[in-house]
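Hey, can you fold this one?
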Amino acid sequence: MLKEDVFTEDIPAVEEAAAPATLSDYETERNKPMPNRIHGAIQSQIGFLLKSVYGDKYQFISELALDTTPGSTPDICIFPKKKLDVKNTPAKETEAPLTTIEIISPSQTFNELMHKAWDLYFPMGVKSAWIVVPEVKAIHIIMPGGDNLYFASGKLKDPATGIEVPVERVFEDLL
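Sure. Predicted structure:
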């Protein structure tokens, strides 16, 4: 072995280093990026806040595959409360949730999630779509009729469900 081979043996070829990243099964199946710790913390906090106040009226389902084309999996879906049939539940949900909640990941844009609401969720019958933006600690509510609400403090009020959530509590674990 020549001396220069020692230095180049473990360095990947330029083609390997520049190859585009392949999507994980999670990203492919759900048509969205892999969540990070901030995403998971916010998703858990929203679920906790909603269930603790509205658990007798609504169900809050996380990571539910909706029967849309292309497929979609909102971070949280809000449905009227009902018993679930463990024997006859399809792999993809055909019933429209009342509300979808999407938390922006670092590799997503607000525009992508807004179009997801308009193109996938509203045509199936969703009444409101929340877009949570961790970087600015704010939540947008998009409505099918074109109304948009923005909450960076105080109480978020969803006109489709009557749900109210203190915005500061959603983001209380973020710097």
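Residues 3-170 form a domain with the tt1808, chain A fold (CATH 3.90.1570.10). Let me know if you want another pass with a different chain boundary.
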